[in-house]
What we know:
globular; mainly beta; 5 strands; 21% strand
Amino acid sequence: xxxxxVYGFKHEDCKIVRTTGKYDRILIIEDPYKVRFxxxxxxxEAISKNSQHWSPASPQDAPEDYFGNFKRNTD
Length: 75
């Protein structure tokens, strides 16, 4: 399954991490290298205080060490 994180990066071969809390709008995924990423659920409902649906940030806005010790080709 393919996931898109909050910075717009696509991730494959990831599993969903079970959390102790209940999150309605986000999920946490983990890649084979045990690096975790936050994603917005594809069917996330809009918050009642805000009429807009959230959209991912730009990949250029991701922190420099976003992928941990692993470098990723973003071209």
